[in-house]
Amino acid sequence: MATSKKIVLTPALAGEYSVGELTEASARKASEVLQENHDSFHIFFNKSGFHSGENLSSSWSRERKLHEYRCGFWEYPVASPYKIDEFLILGVYDILFVSDHIAHHILTIYALGASPEIIQDQYDRNASYQRAPQPVDDKVIEDLHDPAKFSKYLQNERYYHDYLVFFQNEIDKKGYEEVINEYVLKRDERADDMLVRMYSGFLHPIIHLGFGIEFKQPAIVAEALAEAAAHDKWLTPFFIESEKKAKASNQPSRSLVELLDDIRADQKLSSAAHWDDNNKIRDGILVRAKEEMIKYASQWTVKPDELEEKTAEMYNAAVYFTGGAQHPPKRVKFDFYYMHCVNCSVFYSAFLKQPWISTANKIRLLEWKGRLDLTMYASRHSPRPLLDDIINYQPREASKPESSWEGIVHRVLNHPDDGHASKLIRAIAHGEQVCKPFEGSEKFRIKGAMWLQLGNMGKSIAPIAVRIGTNGIYSDRFGGGERK
């Protein structure tokens, strides 16, 4: 039985999307490596903290950087005046992430049918650069039980392990469902603070929470809560003000794709993020066009009887602007930041199925996701999604087996990255199922054969590169003003 300290997977816990019949052997192996990860490693493998925007290059090993380059995690710009080693040192890792993605990766490939051998190989590859957690401080854990002192240790990776043990103890006493309701969804000052942090770090804490809920693993939930506690909360004004503006309006909700079009047409908002902004949302959108962003974000709302369709709408819109952000004749790539909007969407299907999450909180979780997706879209200069590039995409492999979902999954299972490619493929495949009942609506621009096309496009990035995009050093699209 899974507990706050013990990870136990079974083939019956296949998640929202799985491939074939999962085996006991793979469940045991996934449980084994996830347990080692849980017991042995910090949630951040760099002391700078997650998505801090600080210079990370000096603390990343040259071997780690070269490993990611060789695996195709990012692409060396051909026009760069620097040699590859200089390029590595000069800052590609200033914008990459320092989070332990092992739980995401292993649970994803497990659900996609990975063998025990593949699970072990992928784990070993990514365990090699993790770091041990800080020692637990009993005084800190004692303080965390005092609501007046709970916030004292927030936004500091030093206390991740203390928060982890605290939330494990809380889960042992109350169950993970009640702990999430109390510390994230209660709508008091502490819970609202934690909910904002869940959406920080380009969605990584709530992605982690989603995996814990989807696979019913209290230990993963505890990790997610502690991870959120280590994140910042600068998104608070955006979420709260958008929510207040939406409640004050009597207008019906507009569709996300309509709002994407409006954002793209709004020159002030679409150009608010600048190349040299350390964080394109925090230092760009919310500084130079905050009111415009809130105006659009507040126009997407959800009613209780719309939850299923609106979940699908959010999913479809995220895939639309992520998959459509191409730049022919350059090779197919997916913007690394947009990708997280897609990868996170899987879990909203899981949230909908939880009887212990109130309807009001399901609505809030979904509205915040849709609104942050709109903000993410604006932060990359709102490129016009090119549906023709999806429809007319030609897979490199002409044979049907390799370009089928089975062939696509086989490729990403063996791809040597930290799980972003496999998460993307699983999310696209699941999105096809979620959106199919609503494809007749004009709110849904991704439909039919486009889903498999997107799967093949996602598969094609595995041996080459993911576009790092506008927070980094390589983007074909940022600042050019084309495709509006």
Report on this structure.
The protein has 484 residues and is mainly alpha-helical. 55% of the residues lie in helices and 0% in strands. It has helices at residues 24-40, 62-70, 84-90, 102-111, 116-127, 138-144, 147-150, 160-174, 176-183, 189-198, 204-214, 218-230, 236-248, 256-265, 267-270, 280-288, 290-297, 307-323, 336-352, 359-379, 387-391, 400-403, 405-413, 420-435, 450-461. It is globular and about 55 Å long. Residues 49-97 and 462-484 have low confidence and may be disordered.
Quick take:
The chain is mostly helical and about 475 residues long.
Notable traits:
55% helix; 484 residues; single chain; mainly alpha; 25 helices; disordered C terminus; globular
Q: Nearest-angstrom radius of gyration?
A: 21 Å
* Alpha-beta classification: mainly alpha
Strand content: under 5%
Number of helices: 25
Helix-strand blueprint:
Layout: H1 24-40, H2 62-70, H3 84-90, H4 102-111, H5 116-127, H6 138-144, H7 147-150, H8 160-174, H9 176-183, H10 189-198, H11 204-214, H12 218-230, H13 236-248, H14 256-265, H15 267-270, H16 280-288, H17 290-297, H18 307-323, H19 336-352, H20 359-379, H21 387-391, H22 400-403, H23 405-413, H24 420-435, H25 450-461
Helix pairs in contact: 1-4, 1-5, 4-5, 4-24, 6-8, 8-9, 8-12, 10-12, 11-12, 11-19, 13-17, 14-20, 16-20, 18-19, 18-20, 18-24, 19-20, 19-24, 23-24, 23-25, 24-25
